[in-house]
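PT: before anyone asks, these are the final sequences, not the draft ones from last week. 810 residues across everything. Please model them as a single complex and drop the result in this thread when it's through.
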Amino acid sequence: MKSCGLIVEYNPFHFGHLYHLQQSKEASGADCMIAVMSGNFLQRGEPAIIDKWHRTEIALSQGVDVVLELPYVFAVQNSDLFAKGSVLTLSEIGVDTICFGSEQGDISPFLKAYEHVNAHETSYKESLHQYLDQGFSFPEASRHAYEAIGLSNHAIDLSQPNNILGYSYTKTILDHDLSITPMTIKRTQSGYHDETITHQIASATSIRKSILEGKEMTKEAEGSLPGSSIEKLMEYKQKATGWHDWERYFPLLQYKLTTLSPEEIRSFHGVEEGLEHRLLHTIKEATNFSEWMTLLKTKRYTWTRLQRTITHILTHTKKQEIEPILQLNQLPYVRLLGMSETGRSYIRQQKKKMGVPILPNVQSGNHEFVTIEERSVDAYLSCLPAEQKKRLRKRELGPPVMPHM
Amino acid sequence: MKSCGLIVEYNPFHFGHLYHLQQSKEASGADCMIAVMSGNFLQRGEPAIIDKWHRTEIALSQGVDVVLELPYVFAVQNSDLFAKGSVLTLSEIGVDTICFGSEQGDISPFLKAYEHVNAHETSYKESLHQYLDQGFSFPEASRHAYEAIGLSNHAIDLSQPNNILGYSYTKTILDHDLSITPMTIKRTQSGYHDETITHQIASATSIRKSILEGKEMTKEAEGSLPGSSIEKLMEYKQKATGWHDWERYFPLLQYKLTTLSPEEIRSFHGVEEGLEHRLLHTIKEATNFSEWMTLLKTKRYTWTRLQRTITHILTHTKKQEIEPILQLNQLPYVRLLGMSETGRSYIRQQKKKMGVPILPNVQSGNHEFVTIEERSVDAYLSCLPAEQKKRLRKRELGPPVMPHM
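LR: through. Structure below.
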């Protein structure tokens, strides 16, 4: 069975994701579509609008065959570590290809960029550190460093978030010499020609914004979401008394930070260069999350980086827990969130060849990543009323999603 | 100026407290009445129903001349440490007498008990440890040990909470050889003869229960409270969107415990003998505070001891922060919460003789106790909406309460 890997967040699953799924299947000629998905917290440092289980149900209903969890330790990270965790997960399960969306829809600029950066690695690193020392944020310093080695002239624009991610996926495959073929399809923002989809393609960000503002499903969002996505969004909202956004966690964050010492705050992943004092000082002044972020933002720290740091504070993730993943070249396990009939056949076939176990739930393993995963679930649900929290918490210990089995 | 010290919590101030105040003034012949009062968290391990500032205002309106804060590190402790902090605070400010309420209203049994226990110290301690090893709670083991050395036959019933406290005050004065005369007045539970008070004397516990249950002032409570007590209770309720009780802190506690490791939980003061596992296991099951306490309670741990431990978890108070107070024989500072005109004259007179500074607010000092105090304020206010929290938090940095000055 030929398989194709996708790296996704589905927050929430919309027609653009469906297009990516269908085009990737066609382009790769795969029989089995395998998605590795961030759990309850996402790469940009945000709680997912609905939990991973409901997002898994949607994914399976739309044609994904296997949903694997990207461990928290890799999910809430910069593009390099996010890519490392995602690609290594897909590699463990034995995918033949990984297909991502990009502006060009052509893999060759990514391969050329990889060769070019490798050939100028020393200059790139020197330049990067110079810009960082000047107080630029990482993405800005990195963009300037790419320019300095002349990458912008003949390859690819690595200041675009999607290109950065695509480049990181490609780099991980090549760095680790994996037997996976990187592929890319052209992203589409508006109308396109697939007959089965005639709906609006909107970004997940604009969809979240639209529904989180009024705390209700909007006409605009409805036009961009498949029926099962709308259904599961409404189902989760009812179960959890609302969708998740940062504002709901503000009282917990304020309580936590004001009762910790600066030294303790400094122990969390992402708190560097005296940020602990700024975090403390500003959260005492703020009365809601967005006010806090406005007070907290500086040139050096991107919004995304600050949100990731706050996620690690919320989930109590220490520097020492993250350090081991930098050296890791193989994941300790692969966690299954859901599968279709096709997915089940594929996994049965792959299981024997795999070097690491497939976990059906978090109790099966004793790895430290599992402990962190459980903690992230508790942190994610901590803003809900106690009854709802207890009910949704139980789901974490249950089996993977298996529709119609 | 002659002064008399009182050790109080005023949670809330009721007619029984007024009786104690007036009787102590009469019995001691003091010109200046000085109360050392627990801050926002109390000896039995509970958040005060209203904050220390409003309780200070009531105390001053009822005839107390000086209100000093009992540092958090001593306030939420067993009777020995609570007494140590309270008596040493009153000693610093130079009180001539300390007058507490007891069932007998006679100081001699307390003095005799002290002599008897001193004479049989080794047997008492041996006996105490035996009962503790058998799994008895501290108060029970201690009662049996007192029986074992024959104290019950000729002195005082040290199984009564008020006698235990009175005994601890007496013991602290004598152990430290302080020039303070211990005194006691007879407690009264119902009608008594003072003409100025013809109201119901109810316990603070029953008053709290009565108003916290319905979240409204009740006729029953009103009959037991002076006018200014009712007024300040209502004023605070309006400012803080409600009175404080443990239930309001449950979501924060659940979030905190479920995201900490057992090792981290064990670092909090009061978490001993594997209690961390029981705390974690039970809070995952519970959906409110009282349900949690029911699941948590065992023979070995009294309700009070568990509540104290939970207070230290909420305020993030570590074992290593408490250890130094065991050896302490002098407080590092005395913190002033409020004073009348008389109180001001008294303090002006005493200030020169004092060996430690009087702090008008928490920013004046850099002592570790002050840091803990500030943290306990943040923890206390953490259950309020952000706007209210911010406003009440500011009060902590302000000057002491000084009516009509």
